[in-house]
Amino acid sequence: MQIAPIPTLSDEINDIRLRTADIVANRIIPNEGTIYAGGDKSKKLRKEINEEVKKQGLWAPHLPEEYGGMGNGFLVHAYMNEILAWSPLGNRLFGVIAPNSGNQKILVKYGTDEQKKKWLIPLINQEMESGFSMTEPDSAGSDPRSLTTTAVKEGDEWVINGHKIMTSNGQRADFLVVMCKTEDDEGGEANQKMTQIIVPTDIPGVNRIRSVPIWGHTGGDHMEIKYENVRVPLENALGARGSGHQAAQDRLGAGRVYHCMNTIGQMWRAFDIMVKYSTEREVHGGKLESKQFIQGFIADSYMDIQASRLMTIHCAEVMDKEGDARVDISAIKVFVPLAGGRVVDRAIQMHGWRGVSGDTPLAGMFQGFRTLRLADGPDEVHRILIAKEILKKYHDGLSWDFGV
Ligand SMILES: Cc1cc2nc3c(=O)[nH]c(=O)nc-3n(C[C@H](O)[C@H](O)[C@H](O)COP(=O)(O)OP(=O)(O)OC[C@H]3O[C@@H](n4cnc5c(N)ncnc54)[C@H](O)[C@@H]3O)c2cc1C
Q: Residue 231's pLDDT is what?
């Protein structure tokens, strides 16, 4: 990993990037095999790395200082992510463990003091696990307004009924943030009819049906859950009644930038592995690097990574200045995982059998990038949003300004 200070960034961000890179390159990547193997040695290593990260003040970049996080804001976290993602263990060992991290952010923003004490603090202290339960098997996940899970007020309780799918971390979770329809009146703004409600998993009616296998594995713990007459106190609503859609947008907007910076970090590692291998592997009387097909792979991958990186940084900067980043967020959400798929596909091809084996991290990256084209809104929905926003400008007699 070659990381030098970036001249246009502040000393603070450069210092954080360099110290993050030092831990990822020297403590995490060389020990990936041992950490994945589990057991006492793995536990000891994880603990040592966690302590080093905390000592250096790099723990939990997504959280404010008062909750034990770095408190350096959105841009610092985005720039750290492209380095953390070099290892699939990076984020986790720096205290950013999805989907808990997303729920922590939502609880920080929308939680009452009581909710913070009961759910947020144990989540931060890793005494609890959580999940986010929105997608349903029988309604379009890409159109959350179509969801059918209801929460009906009865006395001082919500009564929840519905069927959810792909609730990640659902089996391990001590509580779930469940997206429910709370308003049943006709008319009115569809986006204001949903509320997120905190549901502990150990109460009657939370029926976990199965873990949905993804790419043949159930390790992701993506659960199908039926909520059958689940009763929780009214104070379990997260934020004001009807604010669920807005809260989900808050969660997903920044999350998409982090996912893209993660994808860029992985593409960067795939590129590094690919270029090194091309200088070592002998085929048909010459090194791979001497073949023009392979030179094309390297050049095209460079362009894919650099385009993805600049688009994502531009988007992060617009968001950091609280500008309107809707088009940029959707653009990176479509472009970056597609570009990631192209880069890792070339790296796999160049590695022959090694590319699809467990001897390189490439196969895992390939599956991750493909999956990302569905999660957090499928490509088509983002493309529609981009076109809609651009066309709106032209209908208003304006044109699109790429400079802002
Ligand atoms: C690994 C993984 C983890 C996930 N984790 C969670 C989680 O923790 N919690 C959670 O709630 N959900 C989770 N999801 C679900 C994810 O958010 C949904 O899959 C996603 O929102 C899409 O919804 P859907 O699958 O119901 O697709 P649908 O809405 O049924 O859409 C199907 C397809 O139709 C196409 N399409 C949709 N709209 C249009 C349109 N207007 N024009 C043209 N084509 C269109 C798209 O290609 C889309 O992929 C996860 C998904 C994956 C893959």
A: 98
Cα 146 to averaged position of ligand 1 atoms, centre (Å): 13
Verify cis geometry, omega within 30 degrees of 0, for the bond prior to 7.
no
**What atom in ligand 1 is closest to the CA of residue 170?**
8
pTM attached to this predicted model: 0.92
Take atom 12 of ligand 1 and give the residue whose Cα is closest. 135
Nearest CA to ligand 1 atom 2: 375
In this structure, the chain runs to a length of 404
Task: Map out the domains of the chain with their CATH numbers.
Answer: 11-97 (1.10.540.10), 130-238 (2.40.110.10), 246-395 (1.20.140.10)
- Cβ contacts of residue 207 below 8 Å, gap of 6+? 225, 226, 227, 228
Mean of pLDDT values over 175-179: 97
Q: Are strands 157-168 and 206-211 parallel, antiparallel or unpaired?
A: unpaired
Distance of CA 161 to the CA centre of its chain: 28
Q: How far apart are CA 12 and CA 10, in angstroms?
A: 5
